Amino acid sequence: MSASKVASKLRPVTRDHREGPVARAIEQRTAQLPSDVFLWGAGAAIGGALTLRALGKKEDGIFVGHWAPTLLLLGLYNKLVKLEGSDRYD
Asked: Looking at 1-90, which runs of residues are DSSP E strands?
C-alpha cells in the first residue's frame, strides 16, 4: 500500500480528545530531556549486554540487552512530544 493511500485512510486529529493532567505532566518533563540521552542509554545497554555475555553472565546480558529497544522507543516518544505535543492545537 502506498503512503498516499495510508495517509488518506488516517483520520484527522480532532479537538474532542484531550490529554489528561498525568500525560501532560509526563510530556512536559520528557520534552526537557535531550534526545541523545536515550540514544546513549541504548548504546550503553548494548555495550553492557555484550560485556556481560563475554564475562559468561548470559542471563544478565540478555536482561540488560532488552533495555536497548525500550530506550530507543522512549527516545522516539521524546522526539514526537518535542515536535508535535499532545494538544498542539490548543
From this structure: none
